[in-house]
Structure formats: structure tokens, C-alpha cells
UniProtKB/TrEMBL annotation:
It is found in: Cytoplasm. Pfam families: EPSP_synthase. This is 3-phosphoshikimate 1-carboxyvinyltransferase. Catalyzes the transfer of the enolpyruvyl moiety of phosphoenolpyruvate (PEP) to the 5-hydroxyl of shikimate-3-phosphate (S3P) to produce enolpyruvyl shikimate-3-phosphate and inorganic phosphate. Its EC number is 2.5.1.19. Residues 11-418 form the Enolpyruvate transferase domain. GO terms for molecular function: 3-phosphoshikimate 1-carboxyvinyltransferase activity. Monomer. Keywords: Amino-acid biosynthesis, Aromatic amino acid biosynthesis, Cytoplasm, Transferase. SUPFAM superfamilies: EPT/RTPC-like. It is an enzyme of class 2 (transferase). It comes from the Bacteria. Belongs to the EPSP synthase family.
Length: 426
């Protein structure tokens, strides 16, 4: 297996970097642009496995897409809600957004659509969304376990109506339903039953829908109403840099007592993970922002923190990877749902920190990390891009850390290590 050795840096980083477009925004924009009538152009779009699987699915559904990776641009020739292909065999890799959003998209069609992903995708929850799609007129045929990939959706133009949806394992199923709802035959009301995890991503969904001309009425935290007949407007849309993927570069400033500026990412971002800046501030970093960048300067000594990360859970690994360098323990709470992501992320972080000799306590929905000396090791990444990206930052402080299977960053950040090493050379 391929590995990358991380060179420890015996000085603070001092760098200005650019981060590719947000996965979450690229894939949402692809979906709504496919439903709009006419041509949309997405600028600063992400080119990575997750967005490329997504674009390919849309194209297989008969909606033309032109990819211009050199310009970071994607053109979508939206079909006004029509799904031209009556049959398709769709593959989503390990992209949770593609799995959930494309399953909902095909429910608007009138045909037979098979969906599958990599083995781990077959273990990730789909059932609550599919139950709603069935109540809205589709029939689902599961090849293996009920509620999991692979399956075929036999769709008859999603009817809309009143639904209850569980969203305690992922918010993506709610986002998927919200985005297709304007094209249902009648108004849609969705009541979330119990806890809604990752709420910031639902906010992002509503914001993106509004940016393309569709309104969601939200009542309290848990009820969503979408009027049928609203239509997305085709447009030019610029994707923000990915805030989750910026976290590793800011973390490099934090642990080395250095300075990292991320261009074109601001505190006004619609991505919940911009709150990483607040986390770092609480840990002792200084934050500077303008209308075209944000900059983090690390302290001499990072402080510990006790934090609920339910809303910003893609950052658990980033925090876990820098936790050993804090002056007091780090407790990360309310993140049981990260056990259903690319890997069981609580287990993966705990296992890899212990491999480095760090004392960690694991609970069903949280972890507590005791700062302490690190024994260098080769880090397992479990096909999870965030394990590779986060633990590379740990390697800046301790000679001898190696990242296994660094190619797994291709899921959302194919040239992560190139940019990471460029940061170190500045
Ligand atoms: O809607 C989205 O774009 C995402 C929602 C979150 O997932 P969950 O809702 O499954 O927590 C997040 O972890 C994922 O990277 C992207
Ligand atoms: C959880 C993630 O991805 P997915 O969209 O596959 O859920 C992630 O990118 O950290």
C-alpha cells in the first residue's frame, strides 16, 4: 500500500493557500441546476470523486453536463424537472451526498433506476429516505438488506404530501427531500421525528435552494414546508472554498504557532464548518478576517476544550489530530452519527490516537483525549479522506508519522498533499 511520510516542521508555518470548492455546495448546485430549466454554470466547482460520481449520475439520467476541470467549471443543461432517462444503472462510490440526493432525484422520474456504491456505502443508512419515497409513490426493490444499497427505484413522479422523517443518523436524507420537493405533484410537509443531526447542512440546503429561487418555510427546528410548482432558476453560481477541507490548513497554523491565510473563504460562509474558526479561537488562536480571506495565527500553547460537535462533525478528526498538543483534555460530544460515515469515525480516531500512544476514552457518542507525548506510527486511514488529511497535521509536530493510503483524499480533495507540502515550502 502507498504511504506518505510527513516531515516534521521545526518552525511555524507561514502561508497563504487556496482550497478547492465545497463538496456539499457543488453537489447541491449540481442537483438543483439539473432541475432548473436551461443552462447553469458552476464556477470554482469541486473536481473530486464525490462530485464526479454525482455529475456522472446526472448525465446518465439524460441531463447534459460539461466538465471543465482546468477552469474548475461545470455546465449543466437543466431539463426543468424532467428526468429524460427511463432506465439507469447508477454508481455513487462512497459519496453520501450522491447516494441520498440522487436517490431522491430519480423519484421525480418515471422509470427504473438502480443505485449502488462501494462496500462501505452499502452499510450507510438510506432507509428513512426510501420509506418517504415509497410513501410518495415509488417502489423499491432491495437486492440485499432492506434499507441499504444496492436497490432499484421504480419511480412514478414523486407525489409530495405529508411525511415524517427520522434524521438522527444523517441530515442528508432531509436535504435530499427538501431539494426535490418543489417538483412534487402537491405541496410537501416534512416533520422530523426526534433529533435532527448536522443541522447546519440543512440550513445550507435551504440557502442554496433560495439562491436558485425556491423558498422553504421552516417552522421551529423540525418542520419544513415546500410549495409545489416553485422552479429553480438556471444561473451562474460560484462555489465557496470547502470550509471542512480548509480546517487542516488552519490546524497547521494552530499546532505550529504559525499563520495560515485561506483565500476567498470568509466568516460569512454558508458552510457550518466555518465555525472551526471559533473552535480554534477558544483554543487560543487569533483569527483575522476580511471580505476575501480568513487567517489563523496559532498560540505558543493550545488550550483544551469541551465541545458539542454535532453540527460540525466533519471536524472531529481535525480536532482529534491536534488534541494531543493541547494543555488540557479535549472532550468531543454528541457525535454518535459519525459512526455511519466513511468509516466509524469515533472508533477510527480512538484507534489511531492510541496507536500514537495517546490516552483516549471512547463512549457511544463522544471521546475524551488526554494530551501527552506521541510515539510516531503509520496511521491507518480506513478509506476515509479525513483520517489522512487530519493526521498529516499531527505529523508536522512529531518526526516519523506516516499516512497510509494517502490517495483516499481523492474523495473530496485529490491534490491535498500537493497543497499541504506547498504550504510547508512557503
Ligand atoms: O449534506 C451534506 O453535504 C453533508 C452533511 C453531513 O453529513 P450527515 O448529515 O450525514 O452528518 C456531512 O458530514 C457531510 O460531509 C456532508
Ligand atoms: C461524511 C462525509 O462525506 P459524505 O458526503 O460521504 O457523507 C465527509 O466528507 O466527511
Amino acid at each position: 500500500m502507498d504511504t506518505i511520510a510527513i516531515p516534521a516542521l521545526n518552525r511555524p508555518v507561514d502561508a497563504t493557500v487556496e482550497i478547492p470548492g465545497s463538496k456539499s455546495l457543488t453537489n447541491r448546485a449540481l442537483l438543483v441546476a439539473a432541475l432548473a430549466q436551461g443552462d447553469s454554470v458552476l464556477e470554482n466547482a469541486l473536481f473530486s470523486e464525490d462530485s464526479e460520481y454525482f455529475a456522472k449520475c446526472v448525465e446518465q439520467l439524460g441531463i447534459p453536463i460539461t466538465l471543465n476541470p482546468h477552469l474548475a467549471q461545470i455546465q449543466v443543461a437543466g431539463r426543468g424537472g424532467d428526468i429524460p432517462a427511463k432506465q439507469a444503472d447508477l454508481f455513487v462510490g462512497l459519496a453520501g451526498t450522491a447516494a441520498r440526493f440522487i436517490s431522491a432525484l430519480v423519484a421525480l422520474g418515471n422509470g427504473e433506476y438502480r443505485l449502488d456504491g462501494v462496500p462501505r456505502m452499502r452499510e450507510r443508512p438510506m432507509g428513512d429516505l426510501l420509506t418517504v419515497l415509497e410513501a410518495g409513490g415509488a417502489t423499491i426493490n432491495f437486492e440485499g438488506n432492506s434499507g441499504f444499497m444496492p436497490y432499484t427505484v421504480y419511480s412514478r413522479q414523486f407525489a409530495g404530501g405529508n411525511f415524517r422523517l427520522k434524521a438522527n443518523q444523517t441530515s442528508q436524507q432531509l436535504s435530499a427531500l427538501l431539494m426535490i420537493a418543489p417538483y412534487a405533484q402537491q405541496d410537501t410537509n416534512i416533520e422530523v421525528e426526534g433529533t435532527l443531526v448536522s443541522q447546519s447542512y440543512v440550513k445550507m440546503t435551504c440557502r442554496l435552494m433560495a439562491d436558485f429561487g425556491v423558498e422553504v418555510i421552516q417552522i421551529g427546528d423540525n418542520q419544513f414546508q415546500i410549495k409545489a410548482g416553485q422552479r429553480y432558476q438556471a444561473r451562474h453560481y460560484t462555489v465557496e472554498p470547502d470550509a471542512s477541507n480548509a480546517s487542516y490548513f488552519f490546524a497547521a497554523a494552530a499546532v505550529t504557532g504559525g499563520r495560515v491565510r485561506v483565500k476567498h473563504l470568509t466568516k460569512q460562509s454558508c458552510q457550518g464548518d466555518i465555525l472551526w474558526l471559533n473552535v480554534l479561537e477558544q483554543m487560543g488562536c487569533q483569527i483575522k478576517d476580511s471580505d476575501d480571506y480568513t487567517e489563523v495565527t496559532g498560540p505558543k500553547q493550545l488550550q483544551g476544550i469541551d465541545i458539542d460537535m454535532n453540527d460540525i462533525s466533519d471536524l472531529v478528526q481535525t480536532l482529534g489530530a491536534i488534541a494531543p498538543f493541547a494543555s488540557s483534555p479535549i472532550t468531543i460530544r454528541n457525535v454518535e452519527h459519525i459512526r455511519y460515515k466513511e468509516t466509524d469515525r469515533i472508533k477510527a480516531v480512538v484507534t489511531e490516537l492510541r496507536r500514537l500512544g495517546v490516552k483516549v476514552e471512547e463512549f457511544p457518542d463522544r471521546l475524551k483525549i488526554e494530551p501527552g507525548p506521541i510515539t510516531p506510527a503509520a496511521i491507518e486511514t480506513y478509506h476515509d479522506h479525513r483520517m489522512a488529511m487530519a493526521f498529516a497535521v499531527t505529523g508536522l509536530k512529531v518526526p516519523g508519522i506516516v499516512i497510509k493510503d494517502p490517495g483516499c483524499t481523492a474523495k473530496t480533495f485529490p491534490d491535498y498533499f500537493t497543497r499541504f507540502f506547498q504550504m510547508l515550502e512557503q
